[in-house]
Amino acid sequence: MTMDNDMMNFEHAASMGLSEDEWQLINKRLGRVPNLCELGIFSAMWSEHCSYKSSKRWLKTLPVDGPHVIEGPGENAGVVAIGDGLAAVFKIESHNHPSFIEPYQGAATGVGGILRDVFTMGARPVALLNALRFGAADHEKTRHLLSGVVLGIGGYGNCIGIPTVGGEVNFDPSYNGNILVNAMAVGLANSDRIFRSAATGAGNPVIYVGAKTGRDGIHGATMASTEFSDETESKRPTVQVGDPFTGKLLMEACLELMASDSVLSIQDMGAAGLTSSSVEMASKGGLGMEIDLDLVPAREEQMSAYELMLSESQERMLMVLKPDATDVARAIFDKWDLDFMPIGQVTDTGRLVLLKDGGTACDIPIAPLVDDAPEYDRPQADVPPRPVIKSGDIVETGRISDILRLLMGTSDLASRRWIYEQYDSQVMADTMAGPGGDAGLIRVHGTNRGLAMTTDCTPRYVEADPKTGGAQAVAEAYRNITAIGATPLAITNNLNFGNPEKPEIMAQLAQSVVGMGEAAKRLDTPVVSGNVSLYNETDGVAIQPCPVIGMVGVIDDVDRAIGSRFTTAGQDVVLLGH
Amino acid sequence: MSMSAMRVVIAVFPGSNCDRDMMVAMEQLTGRRPQLVWHKESTLDPVDLIIIPGGFSFGDYLRCGALAGRSPVMDAVMDHAARGGAVLGVCNGFQVLTETGMLPGVLLRNAGLNYVCRDTRIKVAETITSPFTSGLAAGSELTIPVAHNEGNYFASDDDLAKLEDNGQIAFTYIESDIHGPANPNGAARDIAGIVSANGRVMGMMPHPERAMSPALGGSDGALLLSACLEALAS
Amino acid sequence: MQVVVNISLKEGVLDPQGRAIEHSLRGLGFQEVSEVRVGKQITLDIDESDPARLRQRVARMCETLLSNTVIEDYVIDIVEQE
Amino acid sequence: MQVVVNISLKEGVLDPQGRAIEHSLRGLGFQEVSEVRVGKQITLDIDESDPARLRQRVARMCETLLSNTVIEDYVIDIVEQE
Ligand SMILES: Nc1ncnc2c1ncn2[C@@H]1O[C@H](COP(=O)(O)OP(=O)(O)O)[C@@H](O)[C@H]1O
């Protein structure tokens, strides 16, 4: 067995997904060879999932500012003002690979993770949405994956008590071996009570709260950044188990604590767990952090530093408290029966120092983990857009009523009721429009204002012409928000693509982001948060590109919202547009 | 006593998630905010109505309502009921009431094995005698949503016969053109809600607190709740 | 001592989950299957060395919490410690 | 033949249900309890008299449907017929 303090070589680095150049750079930055724990931290932070190394260059081209933007990309979730001193806080995130391996737990932990991203910012989550892609409806795995994912989304969302008000599902053989499970959460906060993750004040206590750390999900961030093969199926024990009950307690405890004016900064432990949370907090604050790993509440015995740092056990948070607030905070977490443990402190050394068993398990500078994370301008091979199909060129081959019946029976157009009746769409008693319409609509509790929200993408358009397809997804989301009577405000997006090291995939990614950015600029809907999921391939076959748009809009008076149903016989039906 | 003078308490368990919805609904009807009581409290001041709200108390682990049914506050609730006090359990609250034995039977997993969230049409039983329904016309119909995974009411044949004979069945699911098949969960005799032998403890699966205004999918829930508040107040 | 409690639905109580599993198994070609029933198995470590007292305590746990005697039966198994 | 399949969570897999039950038992005064884990017990009647083949068929059922081998282990018990 490799020990935490054993020195590593390039083979070890390669097995963690690092390239030769990246390995050399680590040695240079450290001035020495890293040990296992340190290498694990570098490989997680430099993984595609955490570093955005292939997409960063393109994400920078997206419009992120606007008069109502309070927080753009870079925090746990985006924040926009919606009037009356209130803010909508939202983000979308993928859980594709875990959901393929274990659909129920994969989808459930996806929902749990995105909810933590939102309440970490100080917002109470008020709605969930999702965007799902499965293989062909008649593929042998589809039924099992679809029902597992739907159960998992409902299992977490229903239990924690946040309504699922919208989503989309499509089927295509390209997802046979790699489904997409994207979950979006929307929360509400006071604009002047937004919490951020940058650590402040050397000497301030670093607190671990929530569930205990186990050996689950170790190296999930790396897994999310590699292609699938038969071999990954055997890496299965990395699946995490969601616990919506503890998730609910953690949410209530955190919101209660945030109301008490004790929290300086806070970050959820998502991908790469304690590693990314501690590194991001310290790095954003331009500070360092020292953590005594022997104090981390562990579920299993004899966990190594490497395992503690890379575990992706669910329902955990890291925070920096005001020095005199520890007792108040502890009382709140005791009330909710959650672990609460000061595990270290903020330092001004700019280093991440981890203590374990009386020794030092890790001592590395933080800046390179973030600033020196590789950034690639990967080559693109433009594929010429497919010719536009003109509707006039299509020859009708049967009676229109038969064709309509045929269309309504296809997996892409069939009713989604079987799915969304399994989601609680009404809990919190503010749902004005649930699933089944153009957009979900939630009344802002205690006001007459409403938040409209939707998720959209049409992968075959993106495949046919990435730039237009990227723009189209924005336009479609915009139409859905306006159709309910709301004014679109801002976007979150989830870029689901294949292997970016293939030039034609890279072109899909880059060009669709360009199209998305242009549309977002024109429509005045800046991108305030998002997520990237690459390497969605199985045995070398890529998925249909799927840059999902999540959009949020506001309506000042919910009584003026418009439904999508015909309400009485005799009304005129009008076709707008062309 | 007027409705606004009523003292209403809502018991809150870790994992309850319709507690606020019920509080808002009660405030809308009575003009007064009910008190929320944490599950660790083992005594309660005298009150007129205790509500056990919906949600997933204790994550629905072991059996729905089982862990909540054994928490300290339920001792106080049982004392209150033993003195003839009124108790209303909605959804998970209904499950808690059967788990403590305050109501007969048990709520099994839905026959379709899936969680179901949709509007249902329910009918006030013709034979019911309880303050909870005395303000509603026997046989009248209401549209109220359900949202649950375990709403499949089950009791022994003897118990079912007793419920029927004593007029303890409060609501049954009925067929409707808009809302589809009558019974969403396979419940015995289409039971959606029952009351205790003295009529003062009621459990129901549908969520009246979610049907409080036309904009939020109907106001039959407000009708139901205000009828029972009025009856309990008089 | 390690104790295993098996909790099963009483005879006559409908077991929709068991029925669904049976249906799926047959659908998958396991035609030889019938009468599928699903129960719970709860394992506990109990700090009590006297077997009689141990059994009595666990029975109390079953009656007060672990099983719902309206619909469930339970069986207690005491696993000898290695 | 009657067959009992016990399905339990793999070691190291979080068992939130077991934790909640343990917590509740202690709250009810059963302080002697620890390490509560919850599994499933599935009972099936199987029309197959050859024990080797029976075991093999049931193992197949476990792998394809009854257990989720990502997070669960299973044990097959063949109950002799009376
Ligand atoms: N496609 C994207 N468009 C805009 N912002 C993005 C995109 N992908 C990621 N981001 C932003 O980059 C930051 C890091 O995202 P992520 O690593 O997913 O955060 P975490 O893992 O903490 O949830 C977030 O602020 C996110 O909003």
Automatic annotation (TrEMBL), chain B:
Compartmental location: Cytoplasm
Keyword Flavoprotein on entry: no
GO molecular function, one term: glutaminase activity
Catalysed reactions, as listed in the record: L-glutamine + H2O = L-glutamate + NH4(+); N(2)-formyl-N(1)-(5-phospho-beta-D-ribosyl)glycinamide + L-glutamine + ATP + H2O = 2-formamido-N(1)-(5-O-phospho-beta-D-ribosyl)acetamidine + L-glutamate + ADP + phosphate + H(+)
Enzyme Commission numbers on file: 6.3.5.3, 3.5.1.2
SUPFAM superfamilies: Class I glutamine amidotransferase-like (SSF52317)
An example Gene Ontology CC term for this record: cytoplasm
Superkingdom of the source species: Bacteria
Keyword line: ATP-binding, Cytoplasm, Glutamine amidotransferase, Hydrolase, Ligase, Nucleotide-binding, Purine biosynthesis
Active-site positions on this chain: 91, 207, 209
Pathway: Purine metabolism; IMP biosynthesis via de novo pathway; 5-amino-1-(5-phospho-D-ribosyl)imidazole from N(2)-formyl-N(1)-(5-phospho-D-ribosyl)glycinamide: step 1/2
Protein's GO biological process: 'de novo' IMP biosynthetic process
Keyword Nucleotide-binding: yes
First and last residue of the signal peptide: none
InterPro entries the UniProt entry points to: Class_I_gatase-like, PRibForGlyAmidine_synth_PurQ
Subunit structure: Part of the FGAM synthase complex composed of 1 PurL, 1 PurQ and 2 PurS subunits.
Functional description taken from the UniProt entry: Part of the phosphoribosylformylglycinamidine synthase complex involved in the purines biosynthetic pathway. Catalyzes the ATP-dependent conversion of formylglycinamide ribonucleotide (FGAR) and glutamine to yield formylglycinamidine ribonucleotide (FGAM) and glutamate. The FGAM synthase complex is composed of three subunits. PurQ produces an ammonia molecule by converting glutamine to glutamate. PurL transfers the ammonia molecule to FGAR to form FGAM in an ATP-dependent manner.
Protein's name according to its UniProt entry: Phosphoribosylformylglycinamidine synthase subunit PurQ
Species, as recorded: Puniceispirillum marinum (strain IMCC1322)
TrEMBL record, chains C, D:
Pathway: Purine metabolism; IMP biosynthesis via de novo pathway; 5-amino-1-(5-phospho-D-ribosyl)imidazole from N(2)-formyl-N(1)-(5-phospho-D-ribosyl)glycinamide: step 1/2
Reaction(s) this enzyme catalyzes, per UniProt: N(2)-formyl-N(1)-(5-phospho-beta-D-ribosyl)glycinamide + L-glutamine + ATP + H2O = 2-formamido-N(1)-(5-O-phospho-beta-D-ribosyl)acetamidine + L-glutamate + ADP + phosphate + H(+)
One GO term describing the cellular component: cytoplasm
UniProt keyword list: ATP-binding, Cytoplasm, Ligase, Nucleotide-binding, Purine biosynthesis
Family to which the UniProt record says this protein belongs: Belongs to the PurS family.
Subunit structure: Part of the FGAM synthase complex composed of 1 PurL, 1 PurQ and 2 PurS subunits.
The name this protein goes by in its record: Phosphoribosylformylglycinamidine synthase subunit PurS
Gene source species: Puniceispirillum marinum (strain IMCC1322)
Lineage: Bacteria, Pseudomonadati, Pseudomonadota, Alphaproteobacteria, Candidatus Puniceispirillales
Gene: purS
